[in-house]
Amino acid sequence: MILRRTVLATTPALATLTAVTALSASASAGPHTGTSRRRAAPLRLASAGDQLTALREGKITSRDLLEQHLEHIERANPELNAVITLDLEGARAAADKADRHLAETGNVLGPLHGLPMTVKDALEVEGMRTTCGTPSLSGHVPDSDADAVALLRAAGAVIIGHTNVPTMCQDIQTSNPIFGRTLNPFDSEKTAGGSSGGPAAAVAAGFTSLEVGSDLAGSLRLPAAYCGVYALRTSRGASPIVPTRGHIPRLPGWATSSDMITLGPIARTVEDLGLLLDVIAAPAPADRGGWKIDLPTPAKTELGDYRVGIWADDAYCRIDADSRALLAQVAELVRGLGATVDDSTKPVDFAESDKLFQRLMYATASATATDTAFAADVAAAEKITADDPSGFFLRSRTMRHRDWCVADEARQKLRGAWDAYFADHDILITPATPTAAVPDQSSTPLPQRYITVDGTKRPFFDQTSWLNLASPVGLPAIVLPAGTTSDGLPLAVQIIGPYLADRTVLHAAKQLAQRLPEPAQPSVFST
């Protein structure tokens, strides 16, 4: 049963109608004090940090800041289809509660006091339809929050609604049969990426200043690179530093998640990434009585003090001319600051690392297959000879437990290779993607999809190869906008750090961002 207060936007037209109706109802209910009609410089354009400062200092109410975001979503979201579900009644109630609390006590509810936020439609939100883009969950309304969402609420955030994802988060572009396609805010013909395409597009468009995305095969960082925003894949060891219970595609009610998936922040500034990291980096509820997460401080004070590795290109996954030029400029910038730069040493064999990652990814993804579907996969795998490369997917998906243990041992050795590399390097700078955002191919069958790199056709999933260096070994990795193509599409680089050095990669990214061009903003941001 869908609760009355949950407002669902299934199409752009309905989204507009819903928002207009709700806003009109709010206006007719009576006036409220605020600045939502000040069009010159609406506070929603500011960073999350600046919005929170204004809220704490009483320069704006949470309700008025919420209405600024809702009005912007109503005007501009039909063009992008990034926000797909709105809980207007719940959001307004939460904003009013934050305002009353501050007025009555003089204290904020928490570090995200009164801040409007959207949440990826893969994270369960109590009382809000949460579908992960699949018709089989079209009526799913959770009775509790995902652990990460509970942390947001405890910090005082106001949850506006859900942002779009591909079906069961299983694509690197964003489209599904319930809500349709999310467009790239810089070019409607290009993909916003996936699976956190809705969240990244929403942040870039100014519908929200913060989002929590998820990342297995670059699902957080690819959309951030394509949409010109910042994103951090957080560290993951035996357990993640951000709790993942309540994240779909592990089905509702599951207590476990993939052994490689992480949750992390998306924002328009590095500082805002750190702000949200401080909120969501926490043990799972069952562990909080015995230990806490205390991430180390940055390795160095200045970027010029860092020992920097640069892996600018590789025969396994060549990048295009724009990306090569960008990496060369970044390398020159870092050298100019006096940093020790090593552009010849590689921590691991790219091809072997990627093959291992794919095997482990296919294996963990099989967990939510139906018994019938998995039995069919097993039967099909048994008919493929061991030397047939076309059987890689099925053999990985249906591997025996012993084979998984052997693969996991290879993963631990891969972690050891990275540990050895980071004994002599503080960070590694790599490309984020081979190219800027590629054409959306949501309507193209998977076998026919491809990307083009300097005029050469390449496999579709090469888009995430550089991002997947960090994925099997649980390293923190940040994607930051670093320039644009001649067509105005964002370009990005990636910074990878040692396990649990999340604050180091944030610090290095902040120092680098201060010396790079201001990130481009799509026209819809200030519409």
In short:
The protein is 35% helix and 15% strand. It is of the alpha+beta class. Strand 3 (116-120), helix 5 (147-154) and strand 4 (158-163) form a beta-alpha-beta unit.
Description:
The model is unreliable at 1-38 (pLDDT under 50). This protein has helices at residues 12-28, 48-56, 62-80, 88-105, 147-154, 197-205, 221-227, 270-280, 321-336, 350-365, 371-382, 392-397, 401-422, 502-513; strands spanning 7-8, 83-86, 116-120, 158-163, 175-176, 180-181, 183-184, 187-191, 210-215, 230-233, 262-267, 307-310, 340-342, 427-431, 450-453, 456-459, 477-484, 490-496. Helix 8 (270-280) packs antiparallel against helix 14. Helices cover 35% and strands 15% of the residues. The protein starts with 6 loop residues before the first strand and ends in a 14-residue tail after the last helix. With 527 residues, it is of the alpha+beta class. Strands 9-11-10-17-18-14-12-13 form an eight-stranded mixed sheet, with helices on both faces. It has a four-stranded mixed sheet with strand order 1-2-4-3. The protein contains 14 helices and 18 strands. The radius of gyration is 22 Å and the shape is globular.
Write the layout of secondary structure elements.
Layout: E1 7-8, H1 12-28, H2 48-56, H3 62-80, E2 83-86, H4 88-105, E3 116-120, H5 147-154, E4 158-163, E5 175-176, E6 180-181, E7 183-184, E8 187-191, H6 197-205, E9 210-215, H7 221-227, E10 230-233, E11 262-267, H8 270-280, E12 307-310, H9 321-336, E13 340-342, H10 350-365, H11 371-382, H12 392-397, H13 401-422, E14 427-431, E15 450-453, E16 456-459, E17 477-484, E18 490-496, H14 502-513
Parallel strand pairs: 3-4, 12-13, 12-14
Antiparallel strand pairs: 1-2, 2-4, 5-6, 7-8, 9-11, 10-11, 10-17, 14-18, 15-16, 17-18
